[in-house]
Every structure is written in structure tokens, then in C-alpha cells.
Design goal:
With about 450 residues, the protein is α+β, with helices and mostly antiparallel strands. It has two domains: about 190 residues, Jelly Rolls (Sandwich); about 150 residues, no CATH class. Helix content is about 35%, strand content about 20%. It is built from 16 helices and 17 strands. It has a six-stranded mixed sheet. The chain has a five-stranded antiparallel sheet with strand order 4-3-10-7-8, with no helix packed on it. β3 and β4 form a beta hairpin. The longest helix has 16 residues. The protein is globular.
Length: about 450
Amino acid sequence: MTKKEITVLSWDQAEAKFPKNHSNQGIFDGLNQINSSLTAEEQFVYHAKYEFGEKIIHKGRLHLDDYEVAANKYRRSIDDFKKDVGYSNDPLAIILTNYVEVYTENTCDRDSYPVPLNIIREGDIFGVFGTLDILANCPNSDNLKERDWYVVAGNISFHIAFPFGNQTELELLSSELQPFFAESENTYTTRGNHKVKFIKEHVSNWFVEVIYIPRHYLQKLKSLDMIFFENLLFKKGWHQSSPLRYALFEDTTISDLLSATPKKYLTHEKIFLSKVYLYLTQCFFKNAIIYKPLLSEDHVINKAIVEFKDRNQKYFQKSKCVEPLPFISGFLDEGGWGLLSYYHLPIIYNYKPESLTDLIKDLASLRSKIQGNQVIANKQRYILPKIYAFGNRGSTSNSLIQDSKEIKDFIAKTFNKAEEQVNLTSKDFTNIILIKSEHDIS
């Protein structure tokens, strides 16, 4: 296997690559100040280049497999690189191009699935928490523990809905789709690999470029009077952790939407429903994440779909073709909508409803009780979601489609498609919940 190169750049070379538009000038100025206090032999950083879907952080640790350091005037080797960035599992780094996704993984009986935590974009930094641990003199053993979080170049938490209801329609497309839709692929890891493969096969020359700050910059920082720099890092870390601080995992919540609700409205076994509504409501307030339509035409996922359609023109020139619809992790807009699989919703990990119909009925009942509760209405205005659903693949008894005409209208208008092209049925998704934000309490 060909090893991938890490290059060593002078600080001036690296600075020339910094994006012109970013919100971290104070941090960049601080790094420049540290650099100016170093000797000429120490004024270097590391530059790495990652393809779409490539691991950057794996289980909380910088992924270093299959890399080598290119020849350089600073005489740094791959062993030097590992030592220079080994002060933390997630060393301080700057995103030069494109973006990375930070996520964790949950596992339930049916599936393993990603829980997106953050998107760190061009001109922003990661490795803040590990760096703050070092500056705070936290024990090295704590900083180097393996943890269940990941960083990947591009995205892993995205979904392309190719709504092909049967094998006949699938066979109309090229054979390259076969592995992408293989029925036997029932784990997140395998499906995630196919999603990444799909993007990489249809888009070339897409990379994330990263600058890594070596150990001696932080060692020098400790000898300088630069408390402002540490404060900036702390504020950055606090901002980046906001989705995690408010997200709901398994049976744990930070707050409870219905804390002021009289207990008579809810029985104990139904309390999880309040957590569902809390999660969906927080999607609007940027504190939790769902899948929402990807509308950016120049996004790498949309570019891959355009290339895919070009290679399958015979099918997509048909008057009643089914359009592939891309969704990506994000937040609800006012009046916007999104989707998720109900067993992917972290806070109902242990919930086993008999059918999707039962789940939707329970949520609809709870919604009406929340709307009628003046205690909540007077306390805070909530954007309560309106919920629709598709049922299990091939299972009519577990299928529920509420106002399918309206759902198809949502999708068609959002993607600017003809409604007949949005040929979705309960066969096309597995227990998908569609939600639309509404101003129901003022």
C-alpha cells in the first residue's frame, strides 16, 4: 500500500495557506506570536491532506496509519512527527480547506449508527480540548485514554435516499449501484463505507488540508504571558461543545422539556416521549441534530450525485425517474423539515414500540397535551414539530403514512423537483420520521 505524505512547512509557508475568511484571528495571532519567539530551526508545522471519508481521529486518537513524512530541511521523520504531535490524542490543528465532521457512535440491537456532534469548517480549529488539558497540566494518562469519538474528512453522517422500491427498478441502473444497495449490508460501518466509496468514485480532487501544531509551540506558550490565548481556546472549546452539551444520549438528558408539566399528563412509561419532543425541539435551537435536505449545489455530495446522474442518463432522462435526494446532518429552519430513523434517535435506544403507528399516535397525543399546557406556554415559546412517518420496509402492518401528498409536496418544493419524481412509499425507508417545525405556542 502506498503511504500518504505529511509535509513539513515553515510557519510562513503555512500562514500563506490560511483561509482569508475565518473567525479565529485572535488564535492565529497568538500562534504567530509564539512562532516569533522560537528559533529558526523550530519555526515549522506539519501539513496533512485527507481524502473524503478518511479517518483523522479514530476512537479519540489521531489516526497515523499508512503515513510518512516527506523529506524536509528540518530533518523531521515520521517518528519525529508522532512525537511532536503526541502531546495529545487530538493535537491542535487548523482546517485549511473544506471541512471535517466530529461524531460518536451508538449501538442498538438493530444497528450501529453515527451521532454527529459538530462540523468544523475551513479556517476553524480542532484539538482544542486536548490542548486545554495540556495547558491545564492534566495527567497525561487521562489525556491519552481511548475515547468513543471520531473525526472524518468530509462527512459520515449523511444519507442519500435512492428510493427504489424493487429490484426491477434497481436493475435499470448501472451495476456500480449494486454494492451500495446490497440487502445484506445491515450494519452502519459497512453502509458508511459504501457511502464514502460512492462519493469518492464520483468526485475527484476533493481534499481536506490540515495544519498540525507541534509540541514545542505549546511548551513555549507556557513560558510566555499569553493568558488571552488560553482564554480564546477555552471560548472556542465551549462553543464547539454546545451540540454535545445539549444533545440527548440513551436515557440521559441535560434538561427536561416537560419539567413544568403536571405529572397527570404523562405516565412514567411514556416519559421517553417528552425526551423525543425535547430532542426534536432542540433541533430548531441548534442544540441537537437531524438529517435535513442538502441544498448546496457545490457541496461534494451534490457534485457526486450530478456525476452519478451523468453516468446513468438513460434512466434519469425518463419522464418518471426517481430522483436521488441527499440529506445531511444539520438543524431545522423555521418552517423547515428533516428526517431520522426512530431507532436512531439516541434517547429511545431502549424503546421497543410494537409498531411505528403506535409511536406516532403517542407522539401526536403528547403534542396536543403540550400545546394545551399554559404553564409551558407562558414559560417559553417552543417550536413544536409536526410529525409524519414511513413504516418498516415491506411491512404494511407497521406502515403509517400521514398526508403523503403533503410530504411529497414538502420534498418536491424543497429540492425543486416535480412532485411525480418524488415517488416515495413506505418501502423506501425503514421507520423514518419526517418532522416539520411549526410555531404552535406563542
